[in-house]
Amino acid sequence: xxxxxxxxxxxxxxxxxxxxxxxxxxxxxxxxxxxxxxxxxxxxxxxxxxxxxxxxxxxxxxxxxxxxxxxxxxxxxxxxxxxxxxxxxxxxxxxxxxxxxxxxxxxxxxxxxxxxxxxxxxxxxxxxxxxxxxxxxxxxxxxxxxxxxxxxxxxxxxxxxxxxxxxxxxxxxxxx
Length: 176
What we know:
176 residues; 7 helices; 0% strand; globular; mainly alpha
C-alpha cells in the first residue's frame, strides 16, 4: 500500500472516530448536522443572505434592479471613504445569534464557514483585489476579547479566495 493512500485512509478513520465522539453541530443551535461548519435546516432558513441588486458602493440591497452602477441615496449624496463594500447577511433575528457568538462567545470555529460566505458575497470584488486586510481592533479591545474577529475572517476569506492575507497591515491608534 502506498504511503499517500495509507494517510488518506487513516485520516478518514480518525475523522469517523472523532465524529462518533464529537458529532458536527449546527453553528447556531447545536443540533447535530452532517458536516462541521454548517447549519441545520431550521437555522439556515432563518438567515437572510444579501444579494444583488444592491448599491454599487455600499452594497445596500435594493428592492428592484436600478441598473448596473446604481447608488443608494446616501452614497449619491456623499460618497463614503471606501470605494465598495459588501455584506453577507442582514443583521436580524436569524443572523444575530451567529454573529454575537462569533464576536463575543469565542465561536472561532465558524470563521472558515463565514469566510466562504464572504467570498460568495464579494465575488465581483475579489478578482480586482491584491490582498485581504482586516480593520484592526485597538490593542485594549483586543486584550478584552482575546482574539481579533476581523483578523480571523480576513484569513478565512483570503484562504477561500486564494489571496494573500495581511492581518497586521493596519493599526488602530484610537480606542473607539
